Amino acid sequence: MNTQGAMEKPPYGMIALLFVGAFVSILNETLLNVALPSIMKDFDASASAVQWLTTGYMLVNGILIPASAFFIQKFTNRKLFILAMSLFTAGTLLAAFSPSLGVLLTARMIQASGSAIMMPLLMNVMLFSFPVERRGAAMGLFGLVMITAPAIGPTLSGWLIEHYSWRTLFDVVLPIAAITLVVAILKLKNITPQRNIKLDVLSLILSSVGFGGLLYGFSSAGEKGWDSVHVYLPIIAGVIGLLLFIIRQLRLDEPLLEFRIYRYPMFALSSAISVVLAMAMFSAMLLMPIYVQTLRGISPLHSGLLMLPGALAMGVMSPITGKLFDKFGARVLAVIGLAITIYTTHLFSNLTLDTSYSYLMLLYTLRMFGMSMVMMPVMTNGLNELPQSMNPHGTAMNNTLQQVSGAVGSAFLVTLMQNRTESEAERLADAAMKSMPASTQPDPSQIADMKAAIMNEAMLHGINFSFSVSVYIAIIALILSFFMKRTSPAKDLTKEQPLDV
After folding, report:
1. What is the chain's alpha carbon radius of gyration, rounded to the nearest angstrom?
2. What's this model's pTM, rounded to 2 decimal places?
3. Predicted confidence band at 2 (pLDDT cuts at 50, 70, 90)?
4. Distance CA 395, CA 127 (A)
């Protein structure tokens, strides 16, 4: 060990093993989205029922990730990884042979319970293994996993669904997960320190209600509408649960999730930038498939292929960005990356019904290139300020905020798109009626064509409007990025000056 708590020689073999486990678990999050129609047909289930395969997975992640700080401190990295990988592998096996939708949903929940621990565990091992001056390059490789896996998911899923059964999605993941588990049992060693802490059950309940309610409510808003009881009640419960959770954490000597880490200014700033950026990032990830598939009639496979170069560019750039971070710091990278992101998002706000496929691919790739210069450097810069003992809380907080801000951003942008689409459709319909001679009686086919044209134009307008709002969201992140400074581990402020709550 050196003076900063990092190891003199990082355990590259262990980190590679953790990378594989994290990659397949993150890949699994987006792998099933394209397959939902096929699953609906096989099990004769409704869209709302099948949607729980993704919503349920996200909820389990949202509930368990805040508790990951406790698990990482309480148990060895070996026990935790083997447990997480065992759950994920068992869930994958059950999903591949599931005879009913209920069994498949149970399998997805089991998968998610293992997946939720993977990312915080890997990030914590990385922070423990590398000194501050080398963390950029290390976290750049981590970004390769975090960014590439969910982006590859839809493309791989689209190709497999086009040629095989949806069960093949689990058949592909299962052997990789099983081999990773066996190697972990045989080779994985302990490197992270443990603390004899107790689980505060009330904190876990409040965390589950708080984060689970917010995630479910905001994720349901796009489909059910804000006036649905399935939306506003979970959000209200989530807000109350989260407030009570935060108050309890600030009163505990050993909190489940340490909110006093926001006493570190650069960590607080990096969290704010990451939240804003996650909301902006979802504009392209969410709106592009709607535009490409619904308005342009492009197949899910080709829709995924359109986004693949962007994912690959982000993956290739992530390690390079990490090395640049070690040399130049986060601010210059964040400013340049956000400038590219803002410009390309602005171009996305001017889409037409005949924008070329190659132009869309190029624009999306450039946007992802810009984002690759922001996400990991900003996150790493904030984590670098935390003392070693606070790393589990920092990684848990970052992962939790990404989940929540992603759900909030998605709901916000979808609502904006839907509201603008409706208002624009009414305006276009009124204009069409006024321009039509009073004596003209169009036949039903003309009316149907007119309605389709109006709805397409209105939806295009709604998508462009949402992209325009994303520009302003990204500008907020750009302004915040100018205040970033290089950091190094500070003294532990979380035990000083207790907060009166």
Report:
1. 23
2. 0.78
3. very low
4. 9
